[in-house]
Specification:
Blueprint (H helix, E strand, L loop, with lengths): L14 E4 H7 L4 H8 L3 E4 L8 H16 L1
Length: about 70
Amino acid sequence: MHSRIAGTGSYLPDKIVTNADLEKMVETTDEWITTRTGIKQRRILPKDSPLKSSDFGAFASKAAMAKAA
């Protein structure tokens, strides 16, 4: 018996929040965040978005199945 990965998929929200954006909101710096976490930007959903985390899984699954076909 064997298995293989036939396709992969992912889905990310459109809105990007950078460390520079965070600098404007809280007392921090890009350098502080980057050296401690390696994170430069993150993707977030707007508060009024109708999407849920399960929607992201569904979108990613559909992308994976399309690549596998």
